[in-house]
Write a structure and sequence with these properties.
Layout: H1 2-20, H2 22-26, H3 39-59, E1 68-72, H4 78-85, E2 90-95, H5 98-107, E3 113-117, E4 131-136, H6 145-158, E5 159-173, H7 177-184, H8 187-193, H9 204-213, E6 217-223, E7 231-239
Parallel strand pairs: 1-2, 1-4, 2-3, 4-5
Antiparallel strand pairs: 5-7, 6-7
Amino acid sequence: MTADRDIDDVSRTWTKLGDEDPMWAVLTDRGKSGNRWSPEEFLATGVAEIDTVLGRVGALGLQPGRTRALDFGCGAGRLSHGLAQAGFGEVLGCDISRTMLAKAREIVPDEACRFVQVTGTDLAAVETDSVDLVYSCRVLQHMPPALAHGYVREFWRVARPGAVVVFQMPTQPSSSLAGRVLSALPVGVARRLRRGMEMHGTPEPEVRRLVESLGARVVAADPDTSAGPRWDSRLYVTTNA
């Protein structure tokens, strides 16, 4: 029941954010709060990010197929658009927030993209062994670890043999002054400062053990800035090839 309560809490937060300021909630640029992202600017950041990620995947010697990609925690669709522009034949964008998905359907022009609401702690709408690439960034960090780890297990259920799964996850609050201040704040205060967004981390060794338990391996755990200056974070590139 704990996981069900967790997903209900996360869903309420992101449904509210998706109603109020969806593009800013996905990409919290300080100057874009108050619905100041234009769809064109917002989607362009997704194209650039996916280009960088696929470049890194290729540099590691990995070549996933381009038939189907999964964008988990797709929000308003910026990375789904980037994956479609990168040549994936089908892009499945999954999110727990109906308001975020409504914005994605409104602004994403690509016919390759299909958006589906996640209603439970699994990816029941996605077939086993059906996806070439899974990508998730700025998503798992907002979930309690047990819920986030459950979704990582689902990534590897839906991934085909030879697939690549790339996901970002914080490890711990950073040792910077900002990180030390964050660690000292009561959880409720920190959450209010982030408009209801929670932040959670998992130590890298624990993530590596999780991936290995699923029959996959971590090819790279790159330092990553997606969680902001108050957190240490990693971008994990994993494969079962």
